[in-house]
Amino acid sequence: MISQRSKISLPLQLTFLIFSMVLNCMGIVILQLSEAKIAYEKLGFLESFKDLPIAFISLFIVHFISRFGAKKSLIFSLSVVGICSLILPFVEVFWFYKLWFAIIGTCFAIGKICVFGILRNNVTDERSLAKSMNSVEASFMIGIFVVNTGFGWLISSAYSEFWKFGFLFISLLCAVTIFLFSRLQISEAVKAGPESILKDLTGLFSPALVFFLAIIFSIVFIEQSFNSWLPSFYKNHLKVNSFFALQASSFLALFSYAGRMVTSFVIHRFSLSRYYLLCLSLILLVLSVISGIQLFGTEDGSGVLLFLFPVTGFFLSPLYPVINSKMISGIDRSKAELFTALIVIFSSLGSSLSSVMMSILFGNRLLDYYSMYILSAVSLLFVISVIYFKIAGKTSGK
Question: What whole-number distance in Å separates Cα of residue 283 and Cα of residue 276?
């Protein structure tokens, strides 16, 4: 089963790369539509059209995947994403963005549950799973970099009015990934009916799971505060142009990629819980410095923020795959897809609420408190994480 992992690595990484680009183009859409005089309040709720459908239908998706298999489900979701990306450049009305993100979010839920399920069925021990997840999810960070850099160049060029045609590249990438999956033989999980899913769901709940889901919610809440809104923060508060705002945000993705790749190489040498808490502590340190500069620094000194914000990505990016691998490794393989559905649900809720809160912050011109707002969220995450590790330690008898 481990040798099979090397064969499926490329299409899994391409899957996360594609979904990263279509999900994280939100920052670009917000930036471009805000210039078209669309209110931040409307743009903030645009994220909800991506996330809330995921929360409502994820458990149904588990039954869908169980019925048709991970391979067919992945091909279906990638096909829909490819078609939607092909259509988007030719539609102008704002309501279509809502529909587009709702479809993309649903397809991402299918894709993520399939990918996590495949990984769980191919990797057995906790640290190897952490290594694999960091490696696959690192491609998610590359997607953020590619979409920000590519669209940034397009927006700043003489053809800026055709920026939406960049989605045609995503459509082409979907076709390539579908072709790679069509040539693979993937072992499928045992099919489960709706009654089995409901029974397994009831059996999963425990105090450790409740705190784990709170952690997942909080991590995505914090990540979304950066990924979708950092370009607008750079442009509106630091007064840089659209191109530089997107390129500076791309450095966040590069640092995040580096953080996950470093983690995938060194994770075997550390306790997962200690490594996780160390990363969290360093995020608090960097954000404290940023907050100090924002509150007490001069206007000239605020330019340092352009380079400090991306550094947080190096320590923030390992949190999600590390905490997921720690919990998933203890879950029975037959319940991996159901458990992933819970992760997807709480991730989507965290993303949606984060964007609504950020839209309020931007709409009321409270950008001086941007870093302090995120710092407060990270502090709360630290407390929840310490409690979770204590409960998990008692449960495992450590």
Answer: 11
Q: What's the pLDDT tens digit per position in 152-196?
A: 788 877 877 888 888 999 999 999 999 998 887 776 665 555 555
The answer to whether 260 and 133 are in contact (CB under 8 A) is no
Span 39-57, pLDDT tens digits: 666 766 777 777 777 777 7
- DSSP line for 18-33: HHHHHHHTHHHHHHHH
Residue 398 is predicted with a pLDDT of: 46
Radius of gyration of the chain (CA): 20
What confidence score (pLDDT) does residue 2 get?
Answer: 43
Closest by CA to 282, choosing from 323, 245, 326, 313, is 313
CA angle, residues 74, 350, 81, in degrees to nearest 5: 25
Q: Which two tokens stand for residue 125?
A: 């021990």
pLDDT bin (cut points 50, 70, 90) of residue 382 is very high
Residue type, 259: G
349-372 pLDDT, tens digit per residue, is 888 788 788 878 777 777 777 888
Q: Which two tokens stand for residue 62?
A: 């588990």
Q: Is the dihedral angle over the CA atoms 216, 237, 251, 281 positive or is it negative?
A: negative
Which ranges of the chain would DSSP assign to H, the alpha helix? 2-24, 26-35, 40-68, 70-87, 94-122, 126-156, 167-182, 194-204, 207-227, 230-237, 242-266, 272-296, 305-316, 319-328, 336-363, 370-396
What is the residue-wise DSSP string for 220-284? HHHHHHHHTTHHHHHHHHS---HHHHHHHHHHHHHHHHHHHHHHHHHGGGS-HHHHHHHHHHHHH
- The pLDDT value recorded for residue 175 is 96
**Which uninterrupted H or E stretch holds 333?**
none
- Rounded to two decimals, the pTM is 0.77
- Find where tokens 């059209």 sit: 49
**Neighbour-count burial of 305, counting CB atoms closer than 10 A to its CB (0-12 exposed, 13-18 middle, 19+ buried):** buried
Two tokens, residue 306: 């352009």
